[in-house]
Amino acid sequence: MQGIPFENGSYLTAPKDISFASKALPSFVFYLKLLFNLLKISRIVLQSRFDRKVMHDSSLSVFTALESVGVKIEITGTENFKTLDTPCIFVANHMSTLETLVLPSIILPFKDVTFVVKEELVRYPVFKYTMLASNPITVGRKNPRDDLKAVMEGGMQRIKAGISVVVFPQTTRYIDLDPKKFNTIGVKLGKKAEVPVIPLAIKTDAWGMSRYLKDFGRIDPSRKVFFSFGRPLWIKGTGSEEHQEIIEFIQNKLQLWKQ
User: Fold this and answer.
1) Residue 205 in contact with residue 175, Cβ under 8 Å?
2) What does the pLDDT look like over 145-166, one tens digit per residue?
3) CA 129 – CA 45 distance, rounded (Å)
4) What is the pLDDT of residue 125?
5) Which 3-state string (H, E, C) describes the chain?
6) Which of 247, 218, 217, 222 lies closest to 233 in space, CA to CA?
7) pLDDT for residue 240
8) Residue 121 banded pLDDT, cuts 50, 70, 90
9) CB 3.0-4.6 Å disulfide test: which of 11, 111, 159, 244 passes with 75?
10) Mean pLDDT lowest among 87-96, 102-111, 160-169, 179-188
11) How far apart are CA 51 and CA 238, in angstroms?
12) Residue 83 burial class via C-beta count within 10 angstroms: exposed 0-12, middle 13-18, buried 19 and up
């Protein structure tokens, strides 16, 4: 599966010529491209033709659409998961809609993957078809006990089928990471499934939040996008040490990216 040209596990957006329209109206141009992509994928899903390659190519089109309006993207650490001979749990901070749409283009060339997502994401018109086709684990974000059950049961089913799972332990999206709001659900799933956990630090505030339609805010090309994958962690004991290591990995990356 061809896609992002990684070099030694890393990628950085190369200098590009940005059109006048994209410079003047980056949000408008990007969302026009996104809408076209979502409509195309919706037709494919409704025809029951959605597969791993279509999911990857759809995600890659979002990736390239962001770059086409001037958003720079840096990815590091893919070597930490791409050679694993088992599915894994990616445990990440959550900042915007961007990571949910772009991560498949980064992970799918190496591993089948799905997400734990909030229920409302699979209800949006048009957008829902793309999310549902990836067979996500949905949670309500209102009852922690129900969410834990959904993630553990759904996660075990996917892992047994050879599918890795991306987990966002925060109950909502934040620019910074508050350890008190970063739950242990990913570590618990990794322990139960006996698969490694991959820390994933994300900075995606180039895709803002809107007052009226939260998931589709302003695109700000002046803010660089970062994805960094940490070393695989096999959960031992209660998993508290591994959970703390994940938090420290993400916090250190976020602090570095502020500089």
Assistant:
1) yes
2) 888 888 899 999 999 999 999 9
3) 6
4) 62
5) CCCCCCECCEEECCCCCCCHHHHHCHHHHHHHHHHHHHHHHHHHHHCCCCCHHHHHHHHHHHHHHHHHCCCCEEEECCHHHHCCCCCCEEEECCCCCHHHHHHHHHHCCCCCEEEEEEHHHHCCCCHHHHHHHCCCEEECCCCHHHHHHHHHHHHHHHHHCCCEEEECCECCCCCCCCHHHECCHHHHHHHHHCCCEEEEEEECCCECCCCCCCCCCCECCCCCEEEEECCCECCCCCCHHHHHHHHHHHHHHHHHHHC
6) 247
7) 93
8) low
9) 11
10) 179-188
11) 37
12) exposed
Using alpha carbons, select from 149, 142, 117 the residue that is nearest to residue 130: 117
At 177, list the tokens: 């990471």
Query: Considering only 21-25, 89-93, 94-98, which range has the smallest mean pLDDT?
Result: 94-98
Contact 40, 46 (CB under 8 A): no
d(CA 138, CA 119): 5
Specify the residue for token string 């703390």: 244
Q: Give the confidence band of 215 by pLDDT, cuts at 50, 70, 90.
A: confident
Query: Rounded distance, CA 19 to CA 132, Å?
Result: 34
Specify whether the CB–CB gap between 70 and 30 falls below 8 A. no
Average pLDDT, the chain: 88
